[in-house]
Fold each of these.
Amino acid sequence: MQTEIDPRNLIGRKAFDRNGHKIGTVDEVYLDDATGAPEWAAIRTGLFSRDAFVPLEPSELVEGGLRVPFERALIKVAPDFGVGRHLSPEQELQLYHHYGLDVAPAPPPALADRDFGRLAGSGSEES
């Protein structure tokens, strides 16, 4: 996502699909442990309080909300990994495949066993 906004400021913003239909509200933002860049957003869809993960890279901020370039129906059936935990490389791979995106490059060997997708503002850094 190409923006200077602090990822923590995404939390609470409305999220919309590519047609402008409201999906829900950004519940959490996940950062890539290797780069620190915002990578995923968990969108609270309101459907049984479920959070759906969406990639932030092809998404954009528009009129104070987050617009993701996918249909609402596809977002609502995204794999559900729960929120508040790290996304494993395998879970990220499932999400990339779900959205039909190119798979992110494999992490360097030193990072292969680390969890990815730490929460923005969690302050927990692994050494």
Amino acid sequence: MRKLSIVLLLISISFMTMEANNLSERRTKHLVFERWHYQKRTLVPIPIEAILDENSIEIRFLENIDDQVTLQVKDQQENIMFQDVIVTPNEQETYKIDLKGYKVGHYELLYIERDMTFIGEFEIEHSIP
């Protein structure tokens, strides 16, 4: 029982929102995937790391993926602002989503792979020209 409590504590800590980091003069923030949809009730590691800076989201794959992956950005009204399909990404790849033209507001980044969807939430605080 104690081991289960420790595992649950570690899992919950890993999903806490991270503070914005200052790297050089660039403001960046890790997107934390707090909500996910998966058909089976098992623990599934999040396969990407997403970093939000002032002009883009940089996505790093943490493992090789044998299937295609869909990336989407949705606004508050569930409108798809961006969508791209990546075929068999590998962990050496870094993918960048340009946020120029996005208005101030709340957005979601969706990572969709076969029967699972991970959703990370982020805010744009200043309009990006």
Amino acid sequence: MKTLGASLLTVGVVGAGMVATAPAAGAATAAAGYNGACGSGFGVVNSMPVGSAGTVYLTYNSKTGENCTVTIRNSTGEPTHMVAYVRNVDTDEDSYEEGDFTQYAGPVYVAARGACVEWGGVIDKVQAWNFGSNCGSLAGKSSHKDWFAGER
């Protein structure tokens, strides 16, 4: 797991809201289920498909106030470039894991009680990002700094 400021990872502007890039249409693949990688006390609060390659899950632990993200492939195989990312929008604290994995990237954690989070994942060249969502408070600040993961 790596932790660093969001500005270090800022490469381009992708826009507000949910952003996903997907490959050309192909054979249907069963979605990867959440694997419990974040640990005890974490429950899924949101998820997004990463094209047809897998799913990125956002989980939350109400006792600790932590969010956790894990990106899971639909099927295991040769190591593939993957990313799991989560950031507290209010504090700029973020955490990510990037590398070549056979099953999943993450878990990565950030304290975010009462704050909005940015989160997402990458599998191979397919990516899915959600910016400033899952707010613990309706008054969540939307300082909004985009993060973009391009191809290696």
